[in-house]
């Protein structure tokens, strides 16, 4: 069964795209078939996936021009497929609302059947219609979070949104867990926030900590994931471990 997972947090710069790309690459490395969907008009995940095409088809073409979904899917350089995004998604966001096409993405992904084991959706740093589309489509959400003082603000809003969609039977999405990103345990505040997360949301926090690691930041400029760019780096190892933890969570239940 295709497991559709959204990577979301309304805050920018918390490691959503890095998590989406490296999880996609890590899952692909275990021979699982993976599709990465870039729902952020900034298209960072698309760049990091190293697409060869200059102006690829996106969900914009699918929505407005009836392009087939198979014609919007490309190969990444890391063994997973990618449904790219770019600034055209800004118009898609408006289009979905104006034409009342909520859950458009969910319907489209359903047409792919079981072509994939995992579909990972990277989302923009806002709770707009694009993010809602991801929350509708997904059966689980991962929330990357930087352990800083205000980092939990906003996350509660996101959790409430996911819960209210489920309460209204609009989706079966649930929060799979919070992923602590860019962790530097020499930083006392980060350690405090991290410990607090563990005590307050113990069942909702992934054990794997993603360390701050320069290799993860360098990789996108080479059009590959950190996992492939420098497999021996702490960052790569952490994302591979996170993928293992995720697999245990969603496949062995
Ligand atoms: N674990 C990490 N170590 C070092 N740099 C990171 C790490 N995770 C993300 N970054 C860098 O931090 C910035 C923001 O990360 P990104 O994944 O783009 O966040 P978001 O998608 O939430 O905006 C990027 O420049 C990225 O390369
Ligand atoms: Mg991003």
Task: Walk me through the structure.
By secondary structure, the chain is an alpha/beta fold. It has a single domain, classed as P-loop containing nucleotide triphosphate hydrolases (Rossmann fold), CATH 3.40.50. It is built from eleven helices and seven strands. It has a seven-stranded mixed beta sheet with strand order 3-4-2-5-1-6-7, sandwiched between helices. Helix 7 links the parallel strand 6 (140-146) and strand 7 (174-181). The structure holds adenosine-5'-diphosphate and magnesium ion. The site of adenosine-5'-diphosphate has 17 residues, from helix 1 and helix 9. Residues 16-17, 40, 44 line the site of magnesium ion.
One letter per element, helices H and strands E, the order comes to EHEHHEEHHEHEHEHHHH
Helices and strands: which structural class?
alpha/beta
Strand order of the largest sheet: 3-4-2-5-1-6-7
| Helix count from the secondary structure assignment | 11
Rg, nearest Å: 17 Å
CATH superfamily: P-loop containing nucleotide triphosphate hydrolases
Task: Please identify, by name, the CATH architecture.
Answer: 3-Layer(aba) Sandwich
Low-confidence stretches: none
Helix content: 40-55%
Summarize the main sheet: 7 strands, mixed
